[in-house]
Amino acid sequence: MLGNLPNAVWAQGVRVKNCEEIKLFIQYFSDLSEADMNLFVEAPFATEVSTILFDQSWYSEASKPLENRDWNLVLKYLDEFNNHPRISQYLCFKVAIARARAVIYADYLKQYATAIDVLNTLPQLDDPDMRFLVNYSKGCFASNANLSQDATLFFLNAENAEGLGYVFFRLDNTSRLAIEKSKLNDWATAKELFIRAIHQFERSEGKALFKWNCIELLGELAYVYWSIGDLSRAYGAMYGYVMALVNDKSVDDLRFREAYNKAGHGMGWFISIAGTGKPPSATQSGDEYAPVQPGLFGIRRESLGSHIPPTGFSKSLLLIQLAMFAKATCHWRASWILYKRAHVQNKIEKNIDSVRSFIFYIDLASLEAKFGGPSEALQYAIHAKKVLALEKVIGTSKEKLDLHIDESIDSDLQEISKDELRRAETRFLYILFTPLFSELIASGWSTEEIVSKLTQWEHAIIGYE
After folding, report:
1. Which pTM was predicted?
2. Is 156 exposed, middle or buried, given 0-12, 13-18 or 19+ CB atoms closer than 10 A?
3. Can you give the residue ranges of every domain in the chain?
4. CA 68 to chain centre
5. Under 8 Å CB-to-CB from 2, ≥6 apart: which residues?
6. pLDDT tens-place string over residues 262-309
7. Which residues does residue 354 pair with via DSSP β-bridges, in sequence order?
8. Three-state DSSP class for residue 282
């Protein structure tokens, strides 16, 4: 029982929230006898909890409003801890304090070289977990400073460090090493590392806690496949990412929202490049559209969890984007299935009469004619006709489309003349029947089978009249 006491006390270290509480925790240790102190620092949790303990010094300060942060004061506290006559004797504390100081210099004072110097002043480390932590921290600093070669070396050293501690950091290290390999266009190694990291996340004891980290790596893997020209696997990876969002119910969770915003942005870029060869000109809010690059999905971007897109967190929109990506990568049947699911999701979201909710019916009508039945194809085609009829009002201008996108489609149609409606009807007939006839011609069916199919269409059309 006494053997478990040190771990029980160390477990209280994770409750510490700021420098003052760290001071109280350290005071408790400094009052112990040397024998008891040695017993505590030799406990299995000592190295990792020391890191958690002193990381609260910068984390609690970073949680304050920008104008209230005082990094010099935090550094002063850490220097006092580092020079404490009892604490300075123990390496687990010295490493944790050095890391905390280095994080402040690298991430908040933007002094990368100083941060590296702080960690380089540590004595030789024989403990593999300590070696891992120092190299992982250096890798993160180098990556943030856009020094991919240095970051790769540090992450490799961390990857090769043995030990059992820092489970999440070790998972994150593999992910970050893969991202740096992507930056260096080492696609084969990046792919292998991303797949390994995804499997490690799925097998980890904290699988539920790391769910979004794992899912976001599918976006990184998609970019690797995209970059080597394997568009089928790029689509497959994004399918896994998007469907995880669609099937999840925690829409109010900040991590869901962060992953959603990353997916929506990435899908918009993939679709535009696949369809036009050019990136989107701007986001829905009018900002410059940042290109998809290594790290877009796999690096935490907490601010995205607080961002609410103009469309909200619409799952039907994600499904429509995924269907468009499937079509752009020649997965026609998959595109059809996804559009049909988006149609159902639109009803669930009660977003069934806006211009936005009708646009995808143009694609869905033609795909339904190819893969589905005539009755549903005609139903979708009638919706598509409404969108085609609006071209006179909306045109092809993105600015005009944005003005009308969430308006009721029937209110906009009031401005359309009968001639324009007839022209739209002619266009939707081409959209509907061209894929049908091409499918029949390429099917290899007998004359009787083709006549039977056309008879089904005839009956469906008569039923609509």
Report:
1. 0.84
2. middle
3. 1-125, 166-331, 353-465
4. 31
5. none
6. 999 999 999 999 888 888 887 777 778 888 999 999 999 999 999 988
7. 408
8. strand
